[in-house]
Amino acid sequence: MNNIFTKQEKIKFKHIDYAGIVFYPRFLEMLNDLVEDWFEEALDRPFSKMHETNGIPTVDLKIQFKNPARLGEVLTKKLWVKDVGFASVLCGFQFVNEKEVTVLEGEVTLVNVKIAEDREKIKAEGFSDEMKEKISKFKI
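RESULT FIELD:
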């Protein structure tokens, strides 16, 4: 079953710059929120539990800013899986406004990592079969 994970976010004053449009680093925070929500709500792997021993850092990010987003608009944020590897997942994403106009789109590669107890060493760790199965439900 193919799924697209979807969340909505209203553009608030904290998101905008002097020109009245979303300041681009805020989009990256919104994307990270989308990934975090996906892991908690769809994959049953909340960051609060995962980060005790593991992490899921972004190792590659491609993004195109297509149109501005303005204060008060509601964006629909969409995330899906393009490929799943041993310890990595390549996701596509798109944010659209209420008129279905694309605001931004791109790809993000996330890697499942094991974090040593001393928090000094980090290395890739393969996804469990159960996690790969959950992630694959969002593959398009």
